[in-house]
Specification:
The protein is built from 20 helices and no strands. With about 400 residues, the chain is mostly helical. The two termini are about 25 Å apart.
Length: about 400
Amino acid sequence: MTSALAARFPLINLLLTKRLAQVAWCAAALVLAVNAAMFTHAAATSTDYITGYGPAIGGDFVAFHTAAKAAASGEAAGAYDAEKFAGRISAAFPTGGDIRLSWQYPPTMLALIAWLALLPYLVAYGSWAFAGGAIYLAGLRPLLSNRLALFAVLASPAAMQAFITGQTGLLTGGLLALAAWNADRRPVLAGLAAGILTFKPQLGLLIPVAFAAAGAWRAFAIAAITALLLCAATTLALGVEVWRAFFAAIAEHSGRMQSDVFPFEKLVSVYGGAVMVGAPFGAAMAAQAAASLFLAGSTWIFWRRVKAPDLRLAALCAAALLAAPNAFYYELTLVLPALLVVARRGVEGGWLRGERPFLAALWIAPMTVLSFGEQPGPPVGFLAAACALALVVRRSMKS
């Protein structure tokens, strides 16, 4: 089969075998250049931070900066009131029209981002992006075996989406990677990373399962203590009322996730994928619950049987996306560790059949998640996460 394809398409065979590294460099450079050019143009032609495309520079970072200012002014609970929050955004960005963003992060997130209120908007956005990128690269550092791997991460559509949207994808990806890689070797660091990640608890659902399966009880305990201390410090700083407001906002948000106005095309979870292909909300949520339970059991088995830390990290990151009912497209940064692990093992020990084209497709996939506009399209994000997990499991069976 391979020889027949090589004979029929010699140029493609040459590029994907003998010249694969050069092709990867060129593809990454092209994607980075396109994204950088689009972002630069949007920023340069913006008016009062509002771009010609509609969103502000930094996208959803508007919500983070606004929430930080609300907490700093003693009105943390008001961040969870949708109308008050929209009013704050409109006051800060009067030329932005009706920017309908809400705040559903736990109050601990307000404590973690309080420093943003001290900075002007653009400085805060740049600092936020830099901090998230630094933590992300720190988490992926054990997997970055050469300059090409580093460049592929920096230029990846997943990382670009997280940067452009001003969202938490880089931060959450880095924390989850740090927790997974260091569970055995540096339990204090792993526990701290897992404890801080509770600001987005849905992405950490499988961490206790993984830690327990590996017998990483020190990391488990430190994660629990970190989370409790963070909650206690937040309560002391912001009061009890902020927690009541948070739970009320979450209940309201859960209702929106079962309405036709929710942006399901932005989800990468089983729930989002099921709704995208036409499943009723109840059936989609049942599928999500079943998938989450299956992934929890599979994570337990995987972390018990597989000792290689890179495979453990990659599997946990990919599974975390599928286990969370409301994981979004800007969190496809969690797919990159899986791609890095499979690529490195392919280069060092030989490629398995079909790995290279799948890696290329999954690397580029985040660019296509939102390309269908108002028309329902395939659940690209969900398929990317599922395929990444499948590649890691397949690799582990060959190790």
